[in-house]
Write a structure and sequence with these properties.
By secondary structure, the chain is of the alpha+beta class. It has two domains: about 1-205, no CATH class; about 210-415. About 55% of the residues lie in helices and about 15% in strands. The strands form three sheets. It has a six-stranded mixed β-sheet with strand order 8-9-3-2-11-12, sandwiched between helices. Helix 6 packs parallel to helix 8 and helix 8 (about 275-300) runs antiparallel to helix 10.
């Protein structure tokens, strides 16, 4: 690799001299932000990949210049194939059914102006790279502004295979974003926005692959989310019995599932102030639950605690929005299995919650049996949780207050979004609950 780069350096200097260039681009600093755009499409026994990358990201390549820093088009043309293969063809990893494809063939390469919009669609990009006009030698463009368009062809066995990619372009800049669009044989498009080195990404996942990935994602998210963990702790403290926790955890689960799925289907407000509002309300929910534990433990009146499933349901709606923010970038890996992925994420969240409950219940039992009495322990733990979450609430409210949020804007955003659906859902849930309660009472009367 190093020998080939040294060869390119020498070739660049030689090309500059032969072209009569006055200067040569010397080795330059790594660009701060680089965006790589690509299309990937399987066609018969080959897979075609169109890539657009800033020319300045081609590190160690001495492109010849002319005049006050203009790119010498003629002198640079001879360096483009080697630069494309060195930084793209050899670095990008494509896999077919888990096996890495061999090094691609460089089918075409083009220099483009930043004003060129060919990469908006696959067809336009392919036509531009293969049959489009080359830049005239007299084109005056600062070399850092030029774009390099490349067509790579990979030999495959079938267009119906399962394809994966590891972009391998993270060294082109300090912060690299790879915008990749995969065109399926049926013509559907899967869009990805990958940052840095995301590892190997399945371009069109099967339903079971998407399901497993999102189960893992949900499980990890609940364990990483300290605010959700503290909320669960507040739910567990007064009960510490499995069957007593079932209606509470079920209410919380159903509620956050509703808002999570609704958000994924664009039914939530799409405004800048909505995420900080939700984060503030999540902190408020923890404060409320902690103080409710303190009041109930201090007064000995557990009536309010017995109705906690209603409170858990209400706050679960808010927490569901919080989960949806974590899924915004992850949903691109769902492919065509959006609902399956959302349900799988919820399953992962529930598994994480069950693990937390399974650890908290015996730990609290031991603490209250051998460390401190139940009433005092409940007050102390809840007070610590309330203190932490109160700080969060203040900090998040300060962020929220920076947005010009009015009651009219809040009502308008909510009423045209998810609120009507939530009202219908809550009416249905209330009807089912009272129907179940009436049925139980009728059974008890009949038994007597």
């Amino acid at each position: 690799m190093r020998h080939r780069r040294n060869t390119l350096l020498a070739a660049g200097a030689l090309a500059a001299l032969l072209a009569g260039a006055t200067t040569v681009v010397q080795a330059h600093d790594i660009p701060s932000d680089v965006t790589v755009r690509a299309f990937v499409k399987p066609e018969g026994d080959r897979l075609r990949m169109l890539v657009r990358v800033p020319l300045e990201a081609m590190l160690d390549i001495n492109f010849p210049l002319r005049g006050p820093g203009y790119l010498d088009i003629e002198g640079a043309e001879g360096l483009l194939p080697d630069a494309a293969m060195l930084w793209l063809g050899q670095e990008i990893e494509l896999y077919e059914d888990g096996a890495r494809l061999p090094e691609p063939t460089l089918a075409a390469v083009r220099l483009s102006l930043p004003s060129n919009r060919a990469f908006n669609t696959y067809e336009d990009a392919l036509a531009h790279v293969t049959t489009g006009d080359r830049l005239p030698p007299t084109t005056q463009i600062i070399w850092r502004q030029a774009l390099l368009d490349v067509l790579l062809d990979y030999d495959t066995t079938s267009a119906e295979s399962e394809f994966s990619i590891r972009p391998g372009v993270e060294r082109l800049g300090l912060r690299v974003i790879s915008v990749i669009r995969f065109i399926t044989p049926a013509g559907a498009e899967r869009a990805f926005e990958l940052r840095g080195d995301p590892g190997v990404v399945t371009l069109d996942p099967r339903w079971h692959q998407a399901a497993w990935n999102f189960v893992v994602s949900g499980f990890e998210h609940i364990l990483d989310g300290i605010d959700h963990l503290l909320f669960l702790l507040c739910l567990v403290i007064p009960f510490r019995r499995f069957w007593a926790l079932v209606p509470i955890v079920t209410g919380f689960t159903v509620a956050h599932s509703v808002t999570l799925i609704a958000s994924a289907y664009d039914m939530a407000p799409n405004t800048l102030w909505f995420p900080p509002l939700v984060e503030t309300l999540i902190a408020l929910s923890i404060v409320y639950m902690a103080f409710e534990n303190i009041v109930a433990a201090g007064s000995g009146d557990a009536t309010r605690i017995r109705r906690r499933w209603v409170v858990a349901f209400g706050f679960g709606l808010v927490h569901g929005f919080g989960f949806s923010f974590a899924l915004r970038e992850t949903l691109q890996f769902a492919g065509s299995h959006l609902l399956t992925s959302l349900l799988s994420f919820n399953i992962g969240v529930e598994l994480g919650q069950l693990l937390v409950i399974a650890l908290c219940v015996p730990a609290l039992e031991l603490l209250f049996r051998y460390g401190v009495n139940e009433r005092m322990g409940t007050i102390l733990i809840s007070a610590l949780v309330a203190h932490t979450s109160l700080h969060w609430m203040v900090e998040r409210y300060e962020t929220l207050s920076q947005y010009p949020l009015t009651w009219a804007a809040l009502a308008s955003a909510l009423l045209v979004g998810i609120i009507p659906w939530l009202i219908l859902f809550m009416l249905a849930a209330a009807t089912a609950w009272y129907g179940f309660k009436y049925w139980r009472q009728a059974e008890e009367v009949a038994a007597e």
